[in-house]
Amino acid sequence: MKQDLIIIGGGVGGLVTASVAGQLGVKTVLIDAGANLGGDCLHYGCVPSKTLIRSAEVAALTRRAGEFGLQAELGPVDLGAVMDRVRQVIDQIQVHDDPDRFRGYGVDVRFGHARFLDRDTVSVDGERLQARRFVIATGSAPAVPPVPGLAEAGFHTNETIFQLRTLPRRLAVMGGGPIGIELAQAFSRLGSQVTVVEMAAQILPRDDAEQAAELRSVLDAEGITVHTATTVERVEQSEGITRLACRNGESHWTVTADALLLAAGRKPNLDLGLEAAGVAYGPRGIRVDRRQRSSVRHIYAVGDCCGPYPFTHMAEYQAGIVIANALFRIPKKVDYRVVPWVTYTAPELATVGLTEDEARARNLKVEVLRFPFREVDRALAEGETAGQAKLIVRRGRLVGASVLGPHAGELIHEAVLAIQARLRVGTLAAAIHAYPTLAQVFRRAVNTRYTEQLYSDRTRKLVAFLQRWLPGR
């Protein structure tokens, strides 16, 4: 029997699509190559990393107890106990992705490796399944660069690091992107001596350079060693010790560690026999149009397997585009003008829209507004004053924002809405912000735009004139 829809991949993109399709009565098969639904985000990414980061944050706060007028002492960290909590949180969330829940929606959930036999047929463990439409949502996996000795030396990725039971005394991290930097700080706060090696000139290369530099200063102050513009030329391992031969220009040195975390990017999962279906793809993934259709129009793709943004919320957004097109036949197209992302370090770094460098590169005439958290009363009360809000303004409207500070991932959505709705920045300043809140940083940043004008000689003369010549009542 030919299905209406076959979804390959049980991560967020596949699950959102399957949930809607099943509840609408569409004959749907959901196939996942793993043992459980939920995808990378639940099992190896967002959920375990943020849970680990929270434990590390508690450890760091305990060490700072004296700053808050308290006495507390942190004993040796039992990484096994920390990882047990990570597992517990995953198990709690796994309930929402129970296969029986989706079967209750009418979705035929299967586990196995799917491969296309032709543009209308896939094989799963030897069984042939046909459908009118397909959605590929297979996600991505850690990329392994061709560094001599790396494979032989062995390493952890985000798929294995949460299985550790003993805290490594020295941890080397290859890659200064979000995964590398988040886990580097977490393990440092739990007690590891951490060294990060990044090829690019800055950590978090996709983020605002000024904000990334400030975050690096915070990491430096916490005792994390960060090498940027540095390549790993060779990796060796002997007697349980890993050595990374590093190079920066003419300088050479060796990083010695007890464990190595590889966080050098991602690669799309495309072992699906796409050639048999005629689906075009490249190193960055399946090529899709703005309606998420592949080169074969009844085969769609969402999430990391097609890009362009490797975020869970992007897979969810793209799934909505597919639902509109494949199920309702509404020709909805993606709009990537306003895409936020967050690196969950302490302080967090959240970004949306254009960075200052991107705006300058486009020869756009922009204003840059800044306001530091050290001048925000709530930040002072919480003892979290590092960072700033940085707003990019063009023709009176917000076109980009980055927030480095406490709870930046929550705060950034005020900027997301302002850019999405094309609001004038004066609207942000005019909105009443509760006191004392961290969100006041946006209003204070925008107000810096008007300070010079407000207190100019011209304004002072106008006020003097009004006070002298207009009646008081």
TrEMBL record:
Q: Does the keyword Oxidoreductase apply?
A: yes
Question: Which residues pair up as cystines?
Answer: 41-46
Q: According to its UniProt record, which cofactors does this protein need?
A: FAD
- Where is NAD(+) bound in this sequence? 175-182, 198, 265
Q: Which domain of life is it from?
A: Bacteria
Question: Does Nucleotide-binding appear among the keywords?
Answer: yes
Which InterPro entries does the protein's record reference?
A: FAD/NAD-bd_sf (IPR036188), FAD/NAD-binding_dom (IPR023753), FAD/NAD-linked_Rdtase_dimer_sf (IPR016156), Pyr_nuc-diS_OxRdtase (IPR001100), Pyr_nucl-diS_OxRdtase_dimer (IPR004099), Pyr_OxRdtase_I_AS (IPR012999)
Binding of FAD occurs at 50, 138-140, 304
Give the co-factor note.
Binds 1 FAD per subunit.
PROSITE patterns for the chain: PYRIDINE_REDOX_1 (PS00076)
Cite the FAD/NAD(P)-binding domain residue spans from the record: 4-319
MF terms from GO for this chain are: flavin adenine dinucleotide binding; NAD(P)H dehydrogenase (quinone) activity; oxidoreductase activity, acting on a sulfur group of donors, NAD(P) as acceptor
According to the entry, every stretch annotated as the Pyridine nucleotide-disulphide oxidoreductase dimerisation domain falls at 339-445
Q: Which keywords fit this entry according to its UniProt record? A: Disulfide bond, FAD, Flavoprotein, NAD, NADP, Nucleotide-binding, Oxidoreductase, Redox-active center
**Family to which this protein belongs:** Belongs to the class-I pyridine nucleotide-disulfide oxidoreductase family.
Q: What is this protein called?
A: Pyridine nucleotide-disulfide oxidoreductase dimerization region
